[in-house]
Amino acid sequence: MLDPVRPDGGYVKDPVLNFEYLAAGEVVPVHVHSDEEVPVIDEGEAEAFHDG
Q1: Residues 11-36 as b or e (16 or more Cβ within 10 Å = b)
Q2: Please, what is the end-to-end C-alpha distance for the chain in angstroms?
Q3: For residue 48, what are the domain limits?
Q4: Structure confidence at residue 2 (pLDDT)
Q5: Angstrom distance (rounded) from CA 13 to CA 26
Q6: Which helix (H) or strand (E) holds 36?
Q7: Lesser CB count within 10 Å: N end or C end of the chain?
């Protein structure tokens, strides 16, 4: 991933890539943190909500 620093601040500061294994019907609670998350659906289907 290339994302150079720009004067307007539009760049990813702290990217994080997490792999979470969830059973059918399981959910990840709504949460907030200072890192930039990169969601990856490795297998199956998912429904995601992003507020921001």
Answers
A1: eeeeeeeeeeeeeeeeeeeeeeeeee
A2: 21
A3: 1-52
A4: 53
A5: 30
A6: strand 36-37
A7: C
Using only C-alpha atoms, what is the Rg of the chain?
A: 14
**Residue 52, pLDDT score:** 60
State which amino acid sits at residue 29.
P
| Per-residue tokens: 2 | 């290339």
User: Block means of pLDDT (10 residues each) for the chain, length 52 residues?
Assistant: 66 73 82 72 80 64
Measured distance CA(30)–CA(47) in Å, rounded: 13
**Token representation of residue 27:** 């959910």
Q: Residue 35 corresponds to which tokens in the numbers above? A: 């890192």
Predicted confidence at residue 16, as pLDDT, reads 73
